[in-house]
Amino acid sequence: MKRVLVFLFAFIFLFSSCRDSTLSPEEEIKSGTPVVTAECTDVTMDSAWLFGFVHSDYLVSEAKIGFILSSTPNPSLDHGERLSPVEIDKNNKFSIRVRNLLPSTTYYYRAYVILGSSYLVGESRMFTTDPFELRAIDLGFGIKWSNANLGATSPSDCGPRFAWGETRTKSEWTWENYKWCNGSSTTLTKYNNDPSKGIVDNKEVLEASDDAAHVLLGEKWRTPTYEELLELFSVIKSNSAYQCKYIFVNNQRGLDIYYTGNGNSIFLPTTGIPYMSDVISKPYYSYYLSSSINSERPEKANIMLLGPDSAYIGTMNRSNGLWIRPVTE
Using CA atoms, how far apart are residues 87 and 232, in angstroms rounded to an integer? Predict the structure, then answer.
């Protein structure tokens, strides 16, 4: 009996794979095909909507319906990522939006249904994501966040480090080579309100000419303010309108911030702990600069730190190299 079942499942698999290409997915389902993979839509550089159809006989509570996604041809349950749960409409059409894809990458996908010991799949289809492009993402705030760090080549790339108030990256970050001092934290030459720390100008917020995000990206891009980082920090801590969790994208761990209000999201890659010219590898830690100094200690910049169990707004020496997540109006 076992051999008969195996033969039957193999026959159904072959039947679903070698379909009549003259039929539409809806017609195939009506003709008795168990599951059909349909064309995907709305492909961007990091997301796509996948669609499939399932026969009514398999629309039962114990059935498992979804997609298999892979960067190699002919994905299977053993060689691909399972994507579920899916949304199913009254026409037996099911769909899912897959996020955090890699730019300029070809993906292969196929619809599947599992019912008991039956494993049925539709034909394998493919799509290629768009090339990387810096974009402004609406997360429901007054400003929009970029989809990648400053200088990054993809959303999962950490990008280069910048000292606060410097517009170029470098290989070492010390007080001796910091632009806005004469070799130490007590000889500041700009952005200072304390006579004991150097020349006083009472400036506490970056001017556009010293803002790396504005200089390198132009237009309305800039480094986020302390208040804007605090707003992002607040939703990471607790907000029912946002789903925040650590995931892997291209083998890079990071925090995925998903806004349920419009389905938009950003990925904050974990950077590790910056220390002078080195970065101490820590799987959950990220450091992001704001556009302001600490008013009580002008040698330090206000920053946001993401940790494994918490996030907080803190400070770090302006001379140290951190990462920037640009914002725009």
Answer: 30
Claim to verify: residue 174 and residue 314 sit in the same structural domain:
yes
Do 104 and 140 share a domain, yes or no? no
- Percent of the chain scored above 90 by pLDDT? 68
User: How far is Cα 54 from Cα 94, in angstroms, rounded to an integer?
Assistant: 8
3-state secondary structure of 272: coil
Claim to verify: residue 230 and residue 183 sit in the same structural domain? yes
Convert the pLDDT of each residue in 56-103 to its tens digit.
Answer: 988 888 889 999 999 999 999 888 999 998 899 988 999 999 999 999
Instruction: Give, in order, the Cα–Cα distances in Å from 185 to each of 202, 212, 287.
Output: 16, 21, 21
Say whether both 205 and 274 belong to one domain: yes
**At 214, is the secondary structure helix, strand, or coil?**
helix
Expressed as residue numbers, the domain containing 84 is: 2-128
**What total number of domains does the chain contain?**
2
Residues 312 and 185 in one domain: yes
249 and 223 in a single domain? The answer is: yes
pLDDT digits (tens, 9 = 90+) for 161-214: 999 999 999 999 999 999 999 999 999 999 999 999 999 999 999 999 999 999
Cα dihedral sign for 51, 55, 60, 63? negative
